[in-house]
Design a protein that fits this description.
Rossmann fold; binds adenosine-5'-diphosphate; binds magnesium ion; single chain; alpha/beta; 5 strands; 210 residues; five-stranded parallel β-sheet
Length: 210
């Protein structure tokens, strides 16, 4: 038996970390064994790579270096954490995954999509998320929320146009794989966002009753 692989996507301040807990609590309540994790990160080595990726010590990092670091962190995370959990029948709930690579390093940095797809196949084989919740928020709203939260990291320091490309990149991906994505309007207040998420989860768990 393999568990469900659910990912949460969206740009800065969309509410991923906030709503991850809501999704976790819901799934536990209906009887799932849930492993909550994040990217880049999720293992000690991958968290160290995350620090390299976010640190201002490496402002101006080459975008291929950035892409390879993201996938290095992901390879470790998959082999040490995600795949074993799925094999054990757990539901894996991950704050960002490869869709974020297409959005940030692809649409954002301008790396050719095919190069990302090659690495995706190399590192993941055929493994893809079963469901991806995309929290969509206009860039200005997301940035305002993120700025109130903490000092900007290496990505958050980018121009608004970078985040616009990311949002557009995500939206295009949702059109390519409509079955996998659930698009949530995350510009509204938290309660209204969670009403939408609840409806997605109600549908999902009805379809997957043990
Ligand atoms: N729907 C919402 N309305 C207003 N503020 C929100 C909403 N969702 C999240 N926030 C706040 O915005 C900030 C960023 O949310 P967070 O979950 O950290 O976003 P992300 O993980 O997507 O970057 C947090 O301070 C959070 O409390
Ligand atoms: Mg977050």
């Amino acid at each position: 038996m393999t568990g469900l692989f659910i990912t949460l996507e969206g740009s800065e301040g969309a509410g991923k970390s906030t709503n991850l807990k809501y999704i976790y609590d819901y799934l536990v309540r209906v009887g799932h064994q849930v492993l909550q994790t994040r990217e880049p990160g999720g293992t000690p080595l991958s968290e160290s790579i995350r620090e390299l990726l976010l640190s201002h010590d490496y402002d101006g990092m080459d975008s291929d270096t950035e892409l390879l670091l993201v996938f290095a962190a992901r390879a470790e995370h998959l082999k040490k954490v995600i795949i074993p959990a799925l094999k054990a029948g757990q539901t894996v709930l991950c704050d960002r995954f490869t869709d974020a690579t297409y959005a940030y390093q692809g649409a954002g940095r301008g790396i050719d999509e095919q190069r990302i797809a090659d690495l995706e196949t190399w590192v993941q084989g055929s493994l893809r998320p079963d469901l991806t919740v995309f929290l969509d928020v206009p860039v200005e709203i997301g940035m305002k929320r993120a700025t109130n939260r903490s000092a900007p990291d290496r990505f958050e320091k980018e121009q608004l146009s970078f985040f616009d490309r990311i949002r557009q990149g995500y939206l295009q991906q949702t059109l390519k794989e409509p079955d996998r994505y659930r698009v949530i309007d995350a510009s509204v207040d938290l309660a209204a966002v969670q009403v939408q998420i609840k409806s997605v989860l109600d549908q999902l768990t009805d379809n997957n009753q043990h």
